[in-house]
Design a protein that fits this description.
- This protein has two domains: about 5-180, no CATH class; about 185-465, no CATH class.
- The chain is about 70% helix and about 0% strand.
- The protein is built from 18 helices and no strands.
- It has helices spanning about 5-20, 30-40, 45-70, 75-105, 125-140, 150-155, 170-175, 185-215, 225-255, 275-280, 280-295, 305-320, 325-350, 355-370, 375-385, 395-415, 420-425, 430-455.
- The longest helix has about 35 residues, at about 75-105.
- It is globular.
Length: about 475
């Protein structure tokens, strides 16, 4: 079940909200726990068992760590280590086993059959989310949760369960114990949800169709203009797809009384790759910083160690996104630029912001080509066309045809990726905003709903992670 569906918006969500606000406060977490599991198991009911196992594993180990602390920190650390290993083992088995089996089977004399398991939706997100809880308990950054239903509600909370943002326990622990829902927060949640819905349905879906056209093109058909137009289209699609989902998740959280942290902050206005990754998928970057980069030593053990830590973190960031070696290359690709900036490039870019902005856009757009392709060969085909080394000419009639059809969508998407519209709206008089906002939100909801009724193209890119 996806947020941008008629089933979710007009059946599942109204029922969840109606019962949630009708039952007494003390029963609301239990109701959420039940409907969370229904939401997760809608497509693959068998994986509810995996979800419940993950909840039980981290809940019990969190209790054990709290039991041993502070008298026996050694035992608590052992429990934490076992918990991390078991969580990563589950993630490896379901997500990476076939990749490793296929890679090892390429060695002469080695044959490991692939399992062909269906990837549990959102396993990368909720594994990181649950792992953070025992770590925070061990560090003293969060208190232990003794109520199983509250902990289960945190792990399986449907707004952010399958595609983030990654919500850490310590950030919403108090909200699990007590929430003060009010009409202003609910209204803000509805507004945020519809904004995200519009991003996803009206922008991401439209520009995404342009990428699909060129992604299926034969190698000899790609022109310079066509390759760049396709790469820009996918860069916009993935931004509005994922940030739209995050907006919807944050909005749904508000409707239920939760406040989630922001996950995107206009990344395409960045003037360096370093800044770009402070603005893109903020919850993932923060997770890797707090649970991998800093424990490895961060920048506290000299420049050489810091650069190695960046390399490790970005190799892991790449492979976290999917069971393909192209994701590892994508992570290492960004590690290269981040190391380059750390060594000398960042200081120079700060002196010439316009050059920094152009450079960052080229790096990011090129990076999304690596991210989306399924093989190194396909990536090289696109790169050769993009950088004039194997393009079938500069531009073709086909390119002009698709530009005429998608040009307006691309311009709207580019404008919407900038904070200009937001800033202009905020400068309007308060009385005008109070009238314009609900009108625009209602219009976006009606148009998005009409689009969903009429269209069958509605993928969510991050569901595969």
């Amino acid at each position: 079940m996806v947020f941008s569906s008629i089933l979710f918006m007009f059946i599942y969500l109204p029922v969840v909200l109606a019962v949630y606000y009708l039952v007494p406060s003390r029963w609301r977490n239990l109701w959420l726990f039940i409907v969370n599991l229904v939401f997760y198991g809608w497509g693959e009911p068998v994986y509810i068992v995996l979800m419940v196992f993950s909840i039980c594993l981290n809940y019990l180990n969190g209790r054990l760590i709290d039991h041993y602390l502070p008298a026996s920190r050694k035992k608590a650390k052992l429990v934490l280590a076992v918990n991390v290993v078991l969580n990563l083992a589950l993630l490896f088995f379901f997500k990476y086993f076939d990749l490793v089996a296929e890679t090892l089977s390429a060695i002469p004399g080695v044959s490991i059959p692939k399992l062909g398991l269906t990837l549990p939706i959102g396993i990368s997100f909720y594994t990181f989310q649950t792992m953070s809880y025992p770590i925070d308990v061990y560090r003293g950054d969060g208190h232990v949760q003794k109520n199983f239903i509250k902990f289960g509600t945190f792990v399986a909370l449907f707004p952010q369960l399958i595609a983030g943002p990654i919500v850490r326990y310590k950030d919403i622990a108090e909200q699990l114990d007590e929430r003060h829902e009010n009409t202003d927060q609910f209204a803000a949640g509805v507004e945020r949800f519809v904004v995200g819905l519009g991003k996803k349905v009206l922008i991401a879906n439209n520009v995404g169709m342009l990428w699909d056209v060129y992604a299926s093109a034969a190698p000899g058909e790609l022109t310079f203009a066509g390759a760049w137009m396709a790469a820009i289209a996918f860069s916009l699609q993935i931004y509005f797809d994922f940030s739209g989902y995050s907006d919807m998740a944050i909005g749904l959280g508000k409707m239920l009384g939760f406040e989630f942290l922001e996950n995107f902050n206009y990344p395409y206005i960045s003037k360096s790759v370093t800044e770009f990754w402070r603005r893109w998928h903020i919850s993932l970057g923060t997770w890797f910083r707090d649970y991998v980069y800093i424990p490895l030593g961060g920048n506290r053990k000299g420049l050489g160690r810091q650069l190695l830590n960046i390399l490790i973190v970005w190799a892991l960031t790449g492979i976290w996104h999917g069971a393909s070696w192209t994701f590892l290359f994508w992570g290492l690709y960004y590690a290269f630029f981040l190391v380059l900036e750390k060594l000398f490039l960042l200081k120079w870019l700060e002196k010439v912001p316009i050059i920094g902005h152009i450079y960052t856009l080229v790096v990011a757009i090129s990076g999304w080509v690596i991210f989306q392709q399924t093989s190194v060969e396909q990536t090289l085909v696109f790169f050769r066309a993009m950088f004039g080394l194997g393009a079938a000419g500069f531009c073709s009639g086909r390119d002009l045809y698709y530009l005429s059809g998608f040009g307006m969508s691309l311009m709207i998407a580019c404008a919407a990726a900038l904070p200009l519209g937001r800033d202009l709206f905020r400068k309007l008089p308060g009385r005008v905003r109070s009238v314009a906002a609900p009108v625009l939100i209602l219009a976006a909801l009606i148009i998005s709903t009409a689009y969903l009724v009429d269209s069958t193209y509605n993928p969510f890119l991050y569901f595969r992670f």
